[in-house]
Amino acid sequence: MGYADLEKTGNGYLVDTADWSPAIADEIAAAEGLALTEKHWDLINYLREEFFDNNENQPNERHMCKAMSERWGGSVATKDLYDLFPMQPSKQAGKIAGLPETKRKGGY
């Protein structure tokens, strides 16, 4: 079963987080015009870890920058996240990660 066959919200987010798989993430990313690299996966995995292991937490971009700075070494700016997920990292990466749509605006 592919992404097209799964139940989604009006904005394309998976209704059931259990429907997600890495293959589904690749399909969602392709539909968004992205080819996932290791850095994309680092952020996707971080968001999934935060959601499933930390009381459904959905970090904002400031927290994403801090976490990726620790994972990648060096300073990660918001621009770096937008280079990976140009349609707003907190939303686009979350969508590809199979998480519910966050209602926050992103940023700080």
TrEMBL record:
**InterPro entries (alphabetical):** DsrC-like_C, DsrC-like_dom_sf, DsrC-like_N, DsrC/TusE
Mind telling me what this protein is named?
Sulfur relay protein DsrC
Among Pfam families, the record links this protein to: DsrC
Q: Where in the cell is it found?
A: Cytoplasm
Any Gene Ontology biological process: tRNA wobble position uridine thiolation
Q: Does the keyword RNA-binding apply?
A: no
List the keywords (alphabetical). Answer: Cytoplasm
Q: Which GO terms describe its cellular component?
A: cytoplasm
Which GO MF terms are attached to this record?
A: sulfur carrier activity
Q: Which family does it belong to?
A: Belongs to the DsrC/TusE family.
